[in-house]
Design goal:
Helices cover 76% and strands 3% of the residues. It is built from 14 helices and 2 strands; from the N terminus they run H-H-E-E-H-H-H-H-H-H-H-H-H-H-H-H. Strand 1 and strand 2 form a beta hairpin. The termini are far apart. The mean pLDDT is 84.
Length: 289
């Protein structure tokens, strides 16, 4: 009877399993089902096995989109992580100024993704946009709708402006969790500002920075709404990332290839997140030894 009483606690999490089954597992199984079949019409389908996976893995457009995605996500991490740490280090630690900074930093995170793209379309317009018109007034030809490099610069600036505050908030939380005793000991030892950062602040922020790297990589690797609204994947295919290419496949009713690509996409994200996590954990282990 006592054992049954203890096991009844599992009923409390049963609703969670039901919700996850309908929101994640069932759609995933549907995608897996589509990925091994050729959908000819309602009730008409042919089992093709791994054919769509072979087609996707040898698809040159997918390779091109993957390279663009890796470059984009790599640049996002290289810019946002150091920038976020630097801003967090300069923020006030106490008082109303600290609260004001936190509120202002959180504002971009509250704006819907499609609205972000619309804001930057207006902001970077070469004729009336504050940024675009200002750049062109300096004699520099700037048009993100016609020049691939300008499109990349615009998308990167938009992404950095939108999501660097998340890194700042996480890094700031990590800094505020460091006891004052560490700083007092460093002051007594005559440690430099760089030494304090290298041996106290950075190791103590390892946990939150691991979260920041994983979140920013996953989100940047899955980015869709902002660049789609801003550039539509253009000019040409200059900003056609994996998510945009996937949507183009699915809207063309190529359900089999789109489903196979979705699974490949999912596995790529899992692989890179695992690699990042292992690398960051290894760095942390090395610091402790």
């Amino acid at each position: 009877m006592e054992k049954w009483e203890n096991n009844r606690a599992w009923f409390l999490i049963l609703p969670v399993f039901v919700i996850v089954a309908f929101s994640a597992v069932v759609p995933l199984m549907t995608v897996v089902n589509y990925s091994v079949q050729d959908i000819l019409g309602p009730g008409q389908r042919i089992f093709v096995g791994a054919e769509w996976f072979r087609d996707m893995l040898t698809n040159s457009r997918l390779h091109d989109a993957l390279v663009k995605q890796l470059i984009f996500s790599g640049l996002v991490l290289l810019i946002e992580i150091p920038l976020g740490i630097g801003i967090a280090l300069t923020m006030p630690q106490k008082g109303w100024t600290a609260s004001a900074c936190l509120v202002l930093l959180a504002l971009p995170l509250l704006i819907p993704w499609n609205v972000i793209g619309t804001i930057w379309i207006i902001f970077t317009r070469p004729d009336i946009g504050l940024f675009g018109a200002s750049i062109n007034s300096l004699g520099i030809a700037f048009d993100h709708t016609a020049n691939p490099l300008d499109a990349w610069v615009t998308v990167m600036l938009m992404e950095v402006w939108h999501w660097t505050p998340l890194v700042v908030l996480l890094a700031y939380a990590g800094l505020r969790s460091i006891p004052d005793a560490y700083y007092q000991a460093a002051k007594i030892d005559g440690a430099s500002r760089w030494a304090v950062f290298r041996f106290i602040q950075l190791p103590k922020m390892r946990g939150v920075l691991t979260i920041a790297v994983l979140l920013r990589f996953m989100d940047s690797f899955l980015i869709y709404a902002e660049p789609f609204v801003l550039t539509g994947g253009g000019p040409g295919n200059a900003t056609t990332f994996l998510s945009i290419y996937l949507v183009k496949l699915s809207t063309a009713m190529d359900l089999g290839p789109a489903a196979a690509f979705s699974i490949i996409y999912f596995l790529i994200v899992l692989l890179f997140c695992w690699l990042f996590y292992q690398a960051l954990q290894a760095v942390g282990t090395g610091d402790k030894s």
